[in-house]
Amino acid sequence: MQSQIRKLHDKYHAELAKIKNLKELEALRVQYLSKKNGEITNLITQIPKLSIKAKKSIVPQLIALKKEVEETLANKKTELNSKKSQAYRDLTIPLPKAHSGHLHPTTQIIREMNGFFRYHGFSIGEGPEIEEVEYNFRRLNLPEGHPATDLQDSLYIHEPDILLRTQTSSIETRILSNNQPPLRIVAPGKCYRNETNSSTNASFFYQYQGFVVDKEVNIQHLKYMITKWFQFLWGEDVKIRFRYKYYPEVSPGLGQDIQCTFCKGKGCQICKYRGWIEMGGSGMIHYNTLKTCGINPEIYTGFAFGVGLDRMVMTKFGITDIRKLYGGQIVYK
User: Fold this and answer.
1) Model's pTM, two decimal places?
2) Is residue 333 in some structural domain?
3) Which of 25, 84, 293, 310 has its CA 20 to 30 A from that of 96?
4) CA-CA distances (angstroms) from residue 65 to 8, 16, 25, 54?
5) In a domain, 96, yes or no
6) In which band, very low, low, confident or very high, does the pLDDT at 118 lie, cut at 50, 70 and 90?
7) 98 lies in a domain?
8) For the segment 182-219, what is each residue's pLDDT rounded down to a tens digit?
9) Is residue 332 part of a domain?
10) Which of 55, 88, 121 is the last residue of a domain?
């Protein structure tokens, strides 16, 4: 029987080395340790037939063989499970995107509009929020003492020269003063005014400024660009109207409105019962503005537009109170 034990030991290890998966490993376990017909079990059942002297040498060998088989089977199982687990941790396997919140509506609108204007050949500009009066007023055809300067109720940091910018038009004057045409720029940004907070106005708000300066630019180019822009945001069926409006930095000036998306033109609190929501102002850049910024108005013309982003966000996301946008409440999806 000792020779049988040795042969069985060698045979087992040779077969164990060929095992590649858990199914084959289970079959090997049954082959050697099955209670009914396992090869080691069959040898153990023959022990009562041995002499006392033979038992003293055979029994310890069989017990050692059985223990060795059980331990090596367990180790092999751990090894195979580890390989299987590593396969599932492959970092190249694509996984579903985890939900981790979403962008603020204002950020979403800014990115959408930046994409639209980039497609039409515009670059994205930026400028300081703490601004000089020179760029915020003077180069926009607003001389010292001009009535529009008082109407804006500016927030000064150091009177009379340094303030929080009241409009993104200051980005326009900075770029015009430091670059030569042709220029196509849009510039989203924060603005500040001394306003009493209400459902439709706030002291902190976003504007989106854009301008084009080149040879032979006219007002039809302006109306075309604004129409395409609003159709991009609200759909092809959006109703738009242009009104003559005075702005010191442009001449002629236009106000652009869309039909109220809340009441469909019937009149409500959001549109102040007018049926239309004002989306900003625009116009042909004033002769004096171009000249003050160092651009020859006899050669170049241009248009500019500026819109209140917060009102755009409200109409697009169905938000009825501007204060909810920046109050920390999740009132939009």
Assistant:
1) 0.66
2) no
3) 84
4) 9, 14, 17, 17
5) no
6) very high
7) no
8) 999 999 999 998 888 777 777 888 999 999 999 999 99
9) no
10) 88
Question: Which pLDDT tens digit goes with each residue over 263-277?
Answer: 888 888 878 888 998
Peptide bond into 160 cis (omega under 30): yes
> Whole domain around residue 31: which residue ranges?
2-88
Cβ neighbours of residue 203 closer than 8 Å, sequence gap 6 or more: 155, 192, 193, 194, 195, 196, 197
- Is the pLDDT assigned to residue 117 strictly greater than 60? yes
Does residue 143 have a cis bond before it (omega within 30 degrees)? no
What is residue 198's predicted lDDT score, i.e. its pLDDT? 78
Q: What is the pLDDT of residues 270-316, one digit of tens each?
A: 788 889 988 889 999 999 999 999 999 999 999 999 998 888 888 88
| 148-179: b (≥16 Cβ within 10 Å) or e | ebeebebeeeeeeeebbbbbbbbbbbbbbeee
Residue that finishes a domain, picked among 88, 118, 134: 88
Same domain, 57 and 161: no
Asked if 82 and 120 sit in the same domain, the reply is no
